[in-house]
Amino acid sequence: MKYIDEFRDGDLAQKIAANIASEADPRRNYHLMEFCGGHTHAISRYGIVDLLPDNVHMIHGPGCPVCVLPVGRVENAIQLARIPGLILCSYGDMLRIPTANGMSLLRAKAQSADVRMVYSSADAVKIAQENPQHQVVFFAIGFETTTPPTAVAIKQAQALGLNNFTVFCNHVLTPSAISHILQSPEVRQLGLVPLDGFIGPAHVSTVIGSQPYEYFAEEFQKPVVIAGFEPLDVMQAILMLIRQINEGRAEVENEFTRAVLPTGNIKAQLLVAEVFELRRTFEWRGLGLVPYSALKIKSDYADFDAEQRFQIPVVSIADNKACECGAILRGVKQPQDCKIFGTACTPENPIGSCMVSSEGACAAYYSYGRFREKPHATMKEN
Amino acid sequence: MVNYVIISTPENSYKTPMCLAIPACVEQLTAENHAIVNLGGIRKEISLALVEDIAPGDYVIVHVGFALQKLDQLEAKHTLAMFAEMSALYKGN
């Protein structure tokens, strides 16, 4: 397929790998975090780690929307789905996230709750149109890529005069999560997550642009290279990061120029700004409460806000004790450090959210056999 | 006829992720600012509500049924040329 196959060329990958090997300084280590779950997936799927020298370490970040949603919000969605006559619409990944007692939206559906998987927010609006006698709630999750489609759905529902469509909003923001990781005590004091640079998200950046990352590069003196999701994109970004680190630079560079502009997609940003506003704080799995890291629906659109229409209590549910999702999301642990990885917890029967979504580090490792990777040398030293 | 495909189901969603959009070729503009795109032979109707100035033959990044951005075909060429340049450099070493 055009614009895909060229970016997966094995010979070129070997050559970029050779460049990385010759330019990486053997006297030091490079700890690079790919923020986005799409990159985590690509790194596992294409075996990119196998092409890197031993002193270049990929640390998987929290950019998996399914993984970072706290269990309490999934429980809220299950409670909503159990309201008689209510139709809960959700992206497929959300249905399998386990909550307390092994419950999930999929199990609630088996117990007669009307839970419907949709591919797009527009499908949820359509369901509301076709079922005027039912309340329809769209369980909205995701980073800056899924937020504009939710805004479009709300505007569309308003234009159609729908009074049975609401959105349970759980949209979160990439830049605040990166800041939080960089400012976390584990990074500042313990040195457990030594980060030398970031691979910036691909599709999130098509929306927000490359400018929002300039703050990190400057404030934290960490280089950021925005990369596409294909393996050559990721390899090239790693090389660009190594060059910046070697030269003592901390700049925002864009490898994904074919889709990312400095200012991003202004039309999408304006729509989001019209419909949503910042929440003071929001809970992330693995990161805890992160200030100004999520969006809620503006009061102008309160008629389409499920949190206004229904009683949605704050529910806090601790992760399964054996589950290491939290530490994995912070980059402190790798999937194979978790005792239940690949034993009790598999993609078919996930215990933690990192095993649910293909963007989760655990599912990516498991699906592509990456648990056989060599142990993280520097992590052990610390 | 439009062939609708379900990209992910609960059973296979960990294999076909929500966030991994790929560039799709716009084949035909349809009503209400929608378009039919071709993803390696699979045709699907998507919304163009978030983009502007899209014409048949353009490539767009598709995500959850919406085009997020138009792919800049010239920049794609430049990036590929950069890969090739670097490999030439490597051969010279």
Question: How do the helices and strands line up, and which of them pair or pack?
Answer:
The complex is a heterodimer of chains A (382) and B (93).
Chain A: H1 10-23, E1 30-36, H2 37-45, E2 56-63, H3 65-68, H4 71-81, E3 87-91, H5 105-110, E4 114-118, H6 121-130, E5 136-142, H7 147-159, E6 165-171, H8 174-183, H9 185-190, E7 197-200, H10 203-208, H11 214-219, E8 224-226, H12 231-246, E9 252-254, H13 266-275, E10 276-278, E11 281-284, E12 288-291, E13 295-297, H14 306-309, H15 325-329, H16 361-367, H17 377-381
Parallel strand pairs in A: 1-2, 1-7, 3-4, 3-5, 5-6, 7-8, 8-9
Antiparallel strand pairs in A: 10-13, 11-12
Helix pairs in contact in A: 1-12, 2-16, 6-7, 7-13
Chain B: E1 23-30, E2 34-39, E3 42-47, E4 59-63, E5 66-70, H1 73-92
Structure description:
The complex is a heterodimer of chains A (382) and B (93). Chain A has 382 residues and is an alpha/beta fold. Chain A folds into two domains: 1-319, HypD, alpha/beta domain 2 (Rossmann fold, 3-Layer(aba) Sandwich); 325-371, no CATH class. Chain A is built from 17 helices and 13 strands. In chain B, 22% of the residues lie in helices and 32% in strands. Chain B is built from one helix and five strands, in the order E-E-E-E-E-H. A five-stranded antiparallel sheet of chain B has the order 3-2-1-4-5, with no helix packed on it. In chain B, a hairpin with a 2-residue loop joins strand 4 and strand 5 (66-70). Chain B is elongated, with a radius of gyration of 16 Å. The interface between A and B is large, with 66 and 49 residues.
